[in-house]
Design brief:
The protein is mostly helical. Helices cover 77% and strands 0% of the residues. It has 13 helices and no strands.
Length: 288
């Protein structure tokens, strides 16, 4: 069950990243984040009311609030790092956030077997390579590296925090709802600040109409992200966090394959090798 839900997490996060990446070509990135998370919050609010999730409210929801604060900060840091580039360095480094939940699991006393330890190492190397690391070219700005590492830590922290935010299915719905509300509040504040500094909240072509036209796609991105958080929380509760975290972090492979299938982008040799290693690591983790 752990492997199944963790792999579902990778699929959902990979598709959400791919969809979000396409949308940011037409709509400002911060607007994509705020609108997609707002739609997800509305849907989750309905689910919470329908399932009676409010009865699960308790101190553990502070983990969801923390995840909601850390998530947008990590995403903004990642976007800024990508803008500074090169993407061939930033993208693979962003995958290193898996070290946070893996470390948490080890500190909590988890001791995977030898095949699983090997699977962890192979899968992490595969994920980094699948991002297409840039091994040559212009030097990387120190600020880009620091921002990427901050983003990676944030992504990993969100995985750990959301796993602690609930102990039941209805509680999970409530925790995800609280996380999304916090995402919208933090992201909305960042969007307001950027607009005050002269940035645009709406696309240059189409304005608000373009955002409304993209609303179904924005909703899919937001709901896929929510579902991924939910499946990861279930995976982390039903098995070793070290295994769940690594399998859930294979989403860059999914994003690369989606770009290959939809946009006809050619995978570089290093990316194809990374996808293969990630698959080997997955098999070891799932069967170890």
């Amino acid at each position: 069950m752990t492997a199944l839900f963790a792999l579902a997490t990778s699929l959902l996060w990979g598709l959400a990243d791919f969809g979000g990446g396409l949308l940011t070509r037409r709509v400002p990135a911060l607007t994509v984040v705020v609108v997609s998370q707002a739609v997800a919050a509305v849907v989750l609010g309905v689910v919470v009311v329908a399932t009676g999730g409010w009865s699960e409210a308790g101190p553990q929801l502070w983990f969801a609030v923390a995840a909601g604060v850390v998530g947008p900060v990590a995403m903004l840091s990642f976007y800024q790092a990508l803008a500074l580039g090169p993407m061939g360095v930033v993208s693979p480094l962003g995958s290193l956030g898996v070290a946070v939940p893996v470390s948490v699991g080890l500190l909590a006393g988890e001791r995977p077997g030898l095949p699983q330890f090997a699977g962890v190492g192979i899968a992490v190397v595969g994920v980094v390579l699948a991002g297409g690391p840039q091994l040559r070219g212009a030097p990387v700005q120190r600020r880009a590296v620091l921002l990427t590492l901050l983003a990676a830590f944030g992504f990993g922290a969100v995985m750990s925090l959301i796993a602690e935010a609930s102990s039941t299915v209805t509680g999970l719905f409530l925790a995800l709802f609280v996380q999304r509300l916090t995402n919208v509040a933090v992201g909305g504040a960042a969007l307001y600040t950027s607009v005050r500094r002269g940035a645009r909240a709406l696309p240059e072509e189409g304005g608000a109409g373009a955002v409304l036209g993209a609303l179904p796609a924005l909703a899919l991105v937001g709901l896929a992200d929510v579902a991924a958080n939910g499946t990861y929380s279930i995976a982390a509760r039903h098995g070793p966090v070290t295994v769940a975290a690594v399998l859930a972090s294979l989403y860059p492979v999914v994003t690369a394959l989606a770009a290959r299938g939809v946009l006809k982008e050619r995978l570089r040799g290093v990316q194809a090798a990374g996808a293969g290693l990630a698959l080997v690591g997955t098999v070891l983790l799932a069967t170890g």
